[in-house]
Predict the 3D structure of the following.
Amino acid sequence: MKSIIIGTAGHIDHGKTALVKALTGIDADRLAEEKRRGITIDLGFAHMALPTPDGGTLQIGFVDVPGHERFVRNMLAGVGGIDLVLLVIAADESIKPQTREHFDILRLLGVQRGITVLTKSDTVDGETLEVVRLEVEDFLLGTFLEHSPIVPVSSLTGAGLDDLKRAIAAAAAQVEPRDSRALPRLPIDRVFTMKGFGTVVTGTLISGTIHHEDELEVFPSGRKVRVRGVQVHGKPADGAIAGQRTALNLAGASTEDLARGMMLAPPDTFTATRRADVRLTLLKSAPRALRNRSRVHFHSNTMETVAEIALHNTKELAPATEAFARLKLPAAALLLPGDRFIIRQFSPVITIGGGTVLDAVPIPRQPDLADFLQVLSDGNRAPILERRIQRRVRAGISLAQLVAETGWRRDSIQTALSSAFNKGQVHRVGETLIDGVSLAALQALILAAVAAFHKKNSLSPGMAKEELREQGKASPEVFAVALDQLAREQKLEIAGDIVRLPGHGVMMKDEEAQSKKKIEDAFATAGLKVPALHEVLGGLKIDKARAQKIVTLLLREKSLIKISDDLVFHRTALDQLRRQIAAHKAKSPTIDVAAFKDMTGVSRKYAIPLLEYLDRERVTRRVGDSRQIL
């Protein structure tokens, strides 16, 4: 059974609510004040099942919106999720101001299909009805309703209602079903308590599927809720799919925690934002140009807030033109690429434009921003994903981040990138995606950095990995991929934490080689009674900086081992000490400081640091004032 959402639009008192009641038998005016005043103030809802020509059934949810200019903000909360519009024009009044404003809103929101309904046809004669029809045809010229049916009806007598139902069935057949496999999002338009059930929210499910017992996240608060029950068009259901009017009984939140304008979505998937890059269109009817940094009323789905508009590359936007811009919101909200929005002038409050969200995670000082936004605006998935990966030049981007940025499922992202994977334009390492061009640029930078290091540091065997990564400003994941690929191509050699060019090692001059031998010999012949390091270095013919680099080299080679800030030993002396400890164990399983001094012949100055070194090496373990030999 196909489900679609139909919204009404039109001027106040043109018969929108009466038309919905005539079609469905349901009075969409639910508020006492609405019934007292005879006008729709807030959103109203109704539903019906309509037979289709092929013998099937069409499930229709109606969203009845207010027509009064003071309640356009409420109208905007309901019109965002519709598939088909009934543009209602009273035959006795023809086109009025809110007819024009509502129609502008429909076009800005990208509504593609609809039917024009001439209500109150019983109040005018045939000649007048024909004049109104001609006026309406002229008004719709060049719009998405230009070739759609214009159906005269009377909600009072029922005349024309069957024709309208046939027109609805025919138009609905052309409506593309919303994607029920997409990640679910439900903009909340009503919150109330139902006796015996608790907290209930309603909305039009704009994507995906929500089932009984699903866990959801409330945006922007981040509160987690559980679906205790689902109703679709007023009837209990196991789940709701995209395009259906949906009521959810929620556990984990009270009516005080929820409000119109909030959004339900999968938990731990998306991130609310206060910044979004958009394509913005200013209506031809806008009273003046929109200046950079203007404040406007912003409406998207059921949300309403104030936003600042920062225009890209222009100081103002003239009526009937469009530009890229950045929205700045006072509080975080869940916006995703493709979300449509409306802006209304700050004062007086009239609709002046709207547009489409392109990027809800803008990067500061992004190069080629206009080109990037144009690719997003074109809507082709593969180029969009590739550009989103490219802008994370040194960090890469995880699949989870791409899901959060685009709103697309993991499997559809991977399918869209399959060609880029095969061509090496995008590399995948675990969950991280890396741009091929950026990876090649990073590798070139790494090779240049290592070559420069060798030139300046002839006494060093190579460059430390972490120092190299910091120079490249790369994430650990991306750096590891770049380094591994260079090593496999034999463009680099990796020895532990040291990276060097192939064939490069320590390059010593004669006096440096002699100094190295002198340092090593000084400690090798000293046994455990080592001299102070500064005394050894002070007797060399080379400068202190080069002498210290030679010591560092000996430490890296493990010819010398530093056991404290002041003491350095040759490895042969420490190897001999290990053998002495092992021999002592045959006599006694423990050794204290005094016995250690007797065994080695060293003073306390050396004994304590050496015993602490043996503890660290797990040769001994301190127990009170003694050491247990392990």
Remarks:
- The two ends are 76 Å apart (CA to CA).
- The chain has five domains: 2-173, 186-265, 273-359, 393-399+420-507, 513-629.
- Residues 58 and 576 are 90 Å apart (CA to CA).
- Residues 29-42, 67-71 have pLDDT under 50 and may be disordered.
